[in-house]
Design goal:
With 624 residues, the chain is of the alpha+beta class. The chain is 41% helix and 31% strand. Strand 19 and strand 20 form a beta hairpin.
């Protein structure tokens, strides 16, 4: 600028990119200054290749950026660390702390920067701290553990990782980590290990540990199963020695492959061999476990002798029940939950007109139900799924040839071991003959019902408690009741109180199984009496025990009244005849007396005799 103000030539400088003859580019610095030549003014240029300088500037800029990034990264690590970080000088005074340090101690950053390390420790821990500090400042890295006192007064177990930092002065770099949770976890782990050790020792299943096909541990149940006295007898033995020779080689090979991490079955069944040489079936489940001294194979062994026996018994039972199912006179089926036939016994095949039970597999049972009953059958199937079974439901079914027949069907739900519905068992019976018999019985009952209802005689039955179970219209009319009024009523309701003892005697005779005929009176609804001729018979159950009494009753009230009138008439006639006979005999005596009175009329006693004769005449007069 001064050169331009003084009128002197001004040099111009700039940077640009040059182009070489080969086409490559390069950065350069140019300085252009005006000069005066003899032939006139001109410009002189000074060109400098600044490729190296530019490279250096680029590297410096990159290094500065990386340095700033590293410092930022360090600051982020310092502040973002989950561990508490303390920087302290040789006097133990804090010169820098991160956020985790404030959380660990409960003090703010400002409070910590006015404190020293001893302020966080109990008096009893200071001697150890002083010894550690000297060693750390001498350059030794030390990992230690000590409690610190938080601002709220509580103590926290902290693990310290200490090192020295040289930055113009010696600083101690301390990383602190709350190990209270870890200590608690370690204690819980110790307790857990003791608990699991106790579980293994007391486990009801045999547990063995093996490494490289050799047994290293066996629990008490394992020793008991194999007949050993102590773990020392088992330790170091080949795993294969605990199995029968027939499967020993295979098991040892599997153990080696398992130890090498190769895929082998984790569960299998084999024949175990006890210390005394006896054999037994055993189920083995294996897994790899990591122990402090390396991985090993854990084997869980179960003596399955009882299970094998049960399986054999089950096979025999299944064969037996299969024979029973095939020989059953009932049609038996098994279907899935949608009604598709899985199993059909021979009787079921014959019932539907098939020659082979296998030919029915895959048929849906609802297709075997007549159209008028199909929807009802589907609803009943849902009831089976909901309630577990439906009993004695009747449907009209269809045979293979299209013919129809009535059947009674009972179903039950079959569940798997987990309780989940798996299939439906059905039992079907052709009830054609029963239906025919029922129809014949209905016709017969209707015929006899008409006879009973139209009979003039009363019909009455009571149960073993002597309560009315049946009465026809004729007997109800005799007593002035409606039939429904008498049903369920005690028999003594229709008996006069003074006749009840006699009624009980007749019932005692009936209880002995004896029939009899007699007359007795009943108490009508209006309180009047009704005399009936009773033909009573006992009702016995299938075991011959008294179940009630049945009676045919004829109303003899009118006859009883006529007989009573006849008896009264006969009584009066007898009295008349008696009176006539007495009068005749009396007249005969008076005749004699009067005759003698006439003979003695002239005697001295005549006046007396005349009076007596007159009395005798008066007495005999009306009798004549």
């Amino acid at each position: 600028m001064r050169r331009r103000a003084l009128g002197l030539p001004v040099t111009t400088e700039f940077e640009s990119v040059g182009l070489r003859p080969d086409g490559s580019e390069f950065p350069f610095h140019a300085a252009v200054a005006p000069i005066q030549l003899p032939d006139g003014p001109a410009n002189v240029s000074f060109i400098t290749d600044i490729t190296e300088r530019k490279t250096t500037e680029t590297n410096v800029a990159r290094l500065n950026a990386e340095l700033e990034a590293a410092l930022s990264w360090q600051r982020q690590i310092f502040e973002g660390s989950r561990d508490a970080i303390f920087l302290s000088d040789e006097d133990g005074r804090f010169v820098a702390v991160n956020s985790a340090a404030t959380e660990l101690t409960g003090f703010s950053r400002e409070e910590l920067l006015t404190m020293r390390i001893p302020d966080l420790h109990e008096e009893s821990d200071l001697a150890a701290y002083c010894a550690f500090q000297r060693r750390i400042l001498d350059g030794e890295r030390i990992l230690s553990e000590a409690p610190i006192r938080r601002k709220d007064g509580c103590k926290v177990a902290v693990e310290f990782n200490n090192s020295v930092v040289i930055s113009g002065r010696r600083l101690m770099h301390t990383t602190g980590r709350d190990v209270g949770d870890r200590k608690r976890a370690l204690e819980e782990l110790r307790v857990s290990e003791e608990r699991f050790r106790a579980l293994i020792e007391r486990a009801p299943i045999a547990i063995g540990l093996g490494r490289k096909a050799v047994t290293v541990y066996a629990n008490p149940k394992y020793l008991e199963m194999y007949g050993f006295e102590s773990v020392d007898e088992v330790r170091g033995r080949s795993i294969g020695e605990q199995f029968a020779p027939s499967c020993r080689a295979e098991i040892e090979e599997q153990a080696r492959q398992r130890a090498e991490g190769r895929p082998v079955p984790s569960e299998y069944e084999a024949i175990g061999q006890r210390k005394d040489g006896s054999m037994f079936p055993v189920h083995v489940a294996t897994t790899i476990v990591q122990l402090a001294d390396g991985p090993c194979t854990a084997g869980f062994l179960t003596d399955i002798t009882q299970r094998k026996r049960a399986e054999e018994a089950l096979r025999e039972s299944e064969a037996r029940y299969r024979t029973l199912v095939d020989a059953s006179p009932d049609a038996i089926t098994m279907t899935d939950l949608q009604g598709t036939l899985i199993l059909s016994n021979p009787q079921n095949a014959r019932l539907y007109g098939y020659d082979d039970p296998q030919a029915m597999q895959g048929i849906n049972v609802f297709d075997l139900v007549a159209s008028e009953d199909r929807q009802r059958a589907m609803k009943d199937a849902q009831k089976t799924l909901d309630a577990g079974g439906v009993t004695s439901i009747e449907y009209m079914l269809l045979r293979k040839d299209g013919s129809r027949f009535p059947a009674g069907v009972s179903t039950s739900l079959l569940r798997d071991a987990g309780g989940t519905p798996a299939a439906v068992i059905g039992i079907t019976r052709d009830i054609s003959k029963r239906k025919q018999a029922e129809e014949a019985l209905r016709v017969s009952e209707e015929r006899y019902r008409r006879i009973v209802d139209t009979a003039n005689e009363g019909i009455w039955s009571v149960n073993w408690k002597l309560r009315t179970t049946f009465v026809n219209d004729a007997f109800a009319r005799m007593l002035g009741f409606a039939p429904e009024e008498m049903l369920g009523a005690p028999a003594e309701t229709f008996t006069f109180p003074e006749d009840r003892e006699e009624f009980r005697k007749h019932m005692s005779i009936r209880r002995k199984g004896i029939s009899e005929q007699y007359e007795r009176r009943f108490r009508r609804k209006d309180g009047r009496e009704c005399w009936c001729l009773v033909s009573g018979a006992p009702i016995l159950d299938s075991d011959g025990r008294f179940a009630g009494s049945f009676g045919m009753l004829t109303d003899v009230t009118e006859r009883r009244h006529l007989e009573e009138q006849l008896r009264q008439s006969q009584k009066m006639e007898a009295v008349g005849r008696l009176a006539g006979g007495v009068a005749h005999d009396f007249n005969n005596l008076l005749t004699v007396i009067l005759g003698y009175s006439d003979v003695l009329r002239g005697s001295s006693r005549a006046p007396y005799l005349r009076r007596r004769r007159k009395s005798g005449g008066q007495a005999s007069g009306p009798q004549r």
